[in-house]
Amino acid sequence: LMEEIPQVDRYFGAYDLDSMLKYLGVKKDSELLTRRLLTTPKHYAYLKISEGCDRQCSYCAIPGIRGPHVSVPMEELLREAQFLASIGVKELILIAQDTTYYGLDIYRKRALAPLIEKLQEIPGIEWIRIHYSYPTSFPEDVLDLMANSPKVCKYMDIPLQHSSDKVLAAMRRNIDGKQTRALVEKMREKVPGIVLRTTMIVGHPGEGKREFEELLDFVQEYKFERLGAFTYSEEEGTWGAANLKDTISAKVKQERLEELMELQSDISWKFNDSRVGSVERVLVDSYSDGVYVARTSKESPEVDGELLIKGDFNPELVGKFASVLITGADEYDLMGDFI
């Protein structure tokens, strides 16, 4: 990087806080370590619970970029969350390269559920949402907590990537198609009404026509409420780029992507349409051009659809919870009225 972009004054590693502060001439203050200057609206915030990843997925360069998995101590996360609540944050979105791995390095066990149990006790925090969960060895105590806690959103972001045994093995995901199906079924069973967000990769080495058809059947059967997809591309420094030959043409990859997303568009529309006529609790994110933009617990900011509500501006509504009658839907967004 220093050779390619010499205009940068200084480079620092992801964990090199001390060197950064020394370079800037700033004395380290431990009291400020968990303080945040929010770049999101003041009523929700992302809480990064760990950094790095120990997985070796064939397509992913993150372990080489971010390093091995390192959990943030629970006490530090609780202090940060308490500070966020004190400045008006109502929703915490838990993120990491792999949230389900949280705690293994420092507590010798998966500790995502115990962390959430403590976070939900913080006054002012009303929604806790989980992102970036890895399917292998998924901690089931998280599902028990989600099913029984009114503060834990019945929402799970879990990138499954594929359903074919052959492709999952090539991806080095350490899970097969049968285990993947069993996990999805368990989530649906343990948490009735759960919204599952996932991503799929099409055109990965080893994905023939048969494997792609299997993926389509999988998506059609399990009807994920939210699904995004990407075409495979070799990433420098990954296991796949070094060992797997990319034999699928860009044209075929794009055709598969479009076919998958066309299928998902219909699934998403039917899910949204099924909610028309219901009353849901929403968190109002913003107001612009005569329309309030809000979300239910089934939508995460920036990545999911929105609930649009026409009305005159009332500053007291933004950043607050409200009840809304859903009156319309398309494949992405919902429309509604305050009640």
Briefly say what this structure is.
Helices cover 33% and strands 21% of the residues. By secondary structure, the protein is α/β, with parallel strands linked by helices.
Counting DSSP H or I runs of 4 or more residues, the number of helices is: 11
The helix-and-strand class reads: alpha/beta
Strand content: 15-25%
Cα distance, first to last residue? 55 Å
What does this structure look like?
The chain has about 350 residues and is of the alpha/beta class. It is about 35% helix and about 20% strand. The chain contains eleven helices and 13 strands. The protein has a six-stranded parallel β-sheet. The longest helix has 24 residues.
Question: Which helices and strands, and how do they pair?
Answer:
Blueprint: H1 17-24, E1 44-48, E2 50-51, H2 62-66, E3 70-71, H3 74-86, E4 91-95, H4 104-107, H5 112-119, E5 127-130, H6 140-148, E6 152-157, H7 165-171, H8 177-190, E7 195-202, H9 209-222, E8 226-231, H10 239-243, H11 250-273, E9 279-288, E10 291-295, E11 307-310, E12 321-329, E13 334-338
Parallel strand pairs: 1-4, 4-5, 5-6, 6-7, 7-8, 11-13
Antiparallel strand pairs: 2-3, 9-10, 9-12, 10-11, 12-13
Helix pairs in contact: 9-11
What features would you highlight for this structure?
11 helices, about 35% helix, six-stranded parallel beta sheet, alpha/beta, five-stranded mixed barrel, about 20% strand
